[in-house]
Amino acid sequence: MNNGLHPAKTGLVAQSQLSSFKPQLVEFKNNSNSGLFAPIKPKKANYQALIQSLSQRFANLSINHKQLIALTASQLIGIVGISVVGRSLISSGLQNISFDRAKSELAIADINYNTKINQMALGLRSQSENPTLVKAASLYSSGQTLSQDLQAEVKQILDSTSKVNKIEYVTLVGENFQIIGNANTNRNGEIFNPDNLVSDVLANPQTIKASRIINVAELSKELPVLPAGLNNENALIRYTVTPVKNPETNAVVGALIAGEIVNGKDQIVKDTLKATSGGYSAVYLRQPNGEFSLATSLDQGELPNINQAQSNVKLPQKDLALLAAAANAKGSPVTAKIKLGNQTYAMAAQAVPNKIIETDEQATNVFDEKPAAILVRGTPETAINQLLANSFWVEVIAVNLALVLVIFWTLILKRGVVKPIQQLEQTAHKFARGDRYARSEISSNDEVGQLANTFNRMADAMTAQAIRLENQAQLSQLVNDITARFRGSLNTAHILEIAVTSTREAIQADRVIVYSFDENWAGKIIAESVDSDWPSTLGKEIIDPCFANDYVEKYQNGRVQATENIYAAGLTDCHINQLEQFGVKANLVAPILLDNKLYGLLIAHQCSASRKWQELDIELLRQVAIPIGYALEQSYLLEQIDTARYHAETAAIEQRQYNEAVQQQILTLLKDIEGASQGDLTVRSEVTMGELGTVADFFNSIVESLRAIVTKVKTSAIQVNTAIGENEAAIHQLADTVIKQADDISLSLVSIDQMRDSIVTVADNAKQAAVFAHTASGAAQENGQAIDQAVQNIFKLRTTIGDTAKKVKRLGESSQQISQVVALINQIAMQTNFLAINAGLEATRSGVEGEGFAMIAEEVAALAARCSEATQEITQVVDKIQRETNEVVTAMELGTNQVVEGTNIVENAKNSLNQIIYVSQQIDDLVQSISLATESQVKTSQSVSKLMQDIYQVSNLTSTYSHQASQSLKQTVEISQELQATVETFKVN
Known about the structure:
The protein is of the alpha+beta class.
């Protein structure tokens, strides 16, 4: 298209095209000197430059030319492709037909090959019942010598059979494999068991037909004069072996063997060619070393007379793989395309069974790894080639007619497609310049019309998406500004005050309040921001009896209720009266959830008039209510933690003071016990409240009892000293009794020591209890439940923050989709710019007539530039949205990390509280041990009481004996003095 343009006005496109073609032109120029028209083979870089140049030239073409070239090329490719594929399918189908025909004709060759064997089998069956042959075999089997006349008669029968059937071998063999008689050279007495066929028949009486390879030496023993054509080569022979039975005993007494040489005999292949009207037929034998040799063949081709067929035609050496494949196929035919001379054949080959075992019911083919014979059949492909040649010209004519029709229809379709596309292009330019309401006119329902409809839908979607994104960006900014004011605050009143004030400013409402519920779903207004023209509602209590039954679950599930006019919303009179007292004309209600439970309502009032709430207002109130709940939940959680911490510290201080008092009491009690153990029975322990007070009181009782006993003993000693002079003997007896009483008192002292040990144990346990109680807390269980609740709330908060982060990420993905659409618009603008450049070039070439078109092209270029600028601005806005979205995601992740740290701190506090609970349990165990020790002391006191009773009885005896003490005065004096000295050690006053 650029041929003829002035070099100075071609622009960048023309320059790039010329530079792309420059190396190729040089190649042709160099070749012109050598007289060759063909160019030198270009390098890879030249190929790439050529492809790039052609692609650029095609891109610069008008839509008319593009449509013509594309439609013509596509139809031409389709027609040529169909032609080529059809020709390939036809050729492949005809080839398969030829192969199938060759396989079917191969079956005829197999029949002809087995015909002579079947004839031999029938002849041998009749001869196996010949009385002379049966008699000879029976006599030979019994070990008798045959007479000369019988031998001559056997040989005559075998010679006659050989001549009638035109076969080389007819032999009668006995059970010991020795020849009884044969048709040719006399070999009587020799062992004859070719390839163990006789052994198989004697072991399993049945007819066997087999194909075997026999060497020339073995063949010469039977035929001194070899058949023509063998040339000292191994021969392929067809055997038939039939058992000979004694009719009286039905026992096998021998075997009758017939054999025919295949080499050099063309009757098999000739019969095949007669039945199949020419072609190629052959029989190959497989040598012991694995090589294949020709046994017999005829190549008639498509000659009308079989007498003209050429014999002994071998397959080319490179095509003998067909025979190897047939040998490995074990009776299945294999095919190949082979050329013999000037004739091409569809060749089929099949292995002949090594042996066929015949019974009365069926015949069984047996193949081994090395079959002896391969049958080959070739079907000429002359007719197929002629058919393909004739169909070629038909295809050429059809292709030319199709091209004419394609060009004709291309010219017709050009008129109905180009104009709508140009109109669609102009509409796209308007939309790209920023006209959001530019839409394409749809004049048809074809693909162009559907494209225009798709463009209109895309423009509608983009416009709606842009508006929605603007609203979402504005909403996100407002919500972020509002929540940023109370984010991080843990003061409930401060949070609510900022929330209602900021929300009222954002949606320009007359009043915004927070209404909090109690346990009965009644409550009061705890926060308010109201215009000075309207009454305040702060602190008002509102009871709605219908709310608990009808609205709790709805608001719990996130319902946001917008009422434009309370009088037209179908509200009850009671509800309207409640709103009228605050001057409400329209309201907007959103739930505030605390720990996924309805805490209260965030309500906006319009008091001046009814109001149609915008979607932005509704969504703003919804999104502001969510972070209010999170902030309140954090505030309440912190308050609970502070309260629990205060109770724990107070309980710990009280427990420590109590333990210190208990420890002091224990030390005092131990000091008193130590004085009693040293003999001071005047000591008394202070009696206080609690278990230690009981122990002290019990100790005082024991000491008082001991003091009474000691006092009584002193009195008794004085009385004894007084009565010594009255009865010395009685005093002596009294002294014995007093000794016993002293022993009892000693036992009492031991019991008192045991009691002291028990009290010491109690003191030790009390000390341990004081150590454990130092870290205990009386409110451990309640604090544990509070911390568990705190952990659950933090986990829920972390889940909610995670969900919010996912939504923000999805918003980022949506902005990325906008970026993709903007990139598409930018690409359209670039293509439009290229079209404008090409249009300017066309206008320049058209001269004065193209000036108007040039102006239009310049305007289109300017519009494309404006479209690019608009897309850049949109890209900047989208980039800003993505950056802010990423910042929100980062903030969410930071909040999640902070929540995770808070969770770890609360879990650590919970672990510490569990340790406090464990210590408290240890204190309980120690108190139980103190109780057990106290019980032991009770038992000890009982034993002391019993001992005191015994002492009382002894004292009665002492009183009785004192009347008789006058006779034992001297001894009584000594005992009395000793007793008095002992009792003086106790302090009782």
